[in-house]
Amino acid sequence: MKKVLYKFILAVVLAGSVQGAYAADPKPEEEIRYRQSVFNVIGRNFNALGAIAKGERPYDQAFAVKTANLVELLAPLPFGSFGPGTDKGALHRSDAKIWTDQAKYKEATDKFLAEVSKLSTSAKDLNSLKAQVGEIGKTCKGCHDDFRLKEAR
After folding, report:
1. Can you give the residue range of the structural domain that contains 32?
2. Is 72 in contact with 117 (CB distance < 8 Å)?
3. What pLDDT score was predicted for residue 125?
4. Is position 152 within any domain?
């Protein structure tokens, strides 16, 4: 299990290095694809924890902690890819309010990151995990309600 986590961390670091190579002149479509990919991986892993919280998947502490650690590790990554010009360039569902009401968007992302930072600790106990998944879910819903379009543009 530790080997898998170390390999994943190495992959994230290398991916960050590659992203850093583009940082001097990132193309909007690359940034859009990057954030979509990271959100996809976060969502898939968070959904597994959600299934545990709902009783749709059996609680396995080792799996829950590993998955929670992964979500915590990935959570901050996509938010750096909402820079100028990334509202256009590829299909996405990001609402223009992300760029026009940046203070409100930052507040929403800060709430999400604060709740996610508690996830791996809460994953050690089923009842705590259930509660924390619910709190994170509220932050996800709030951001999606305010800053995510129903249809790609």
Report:
1. 2-147
2. yes
3. 97
4. no
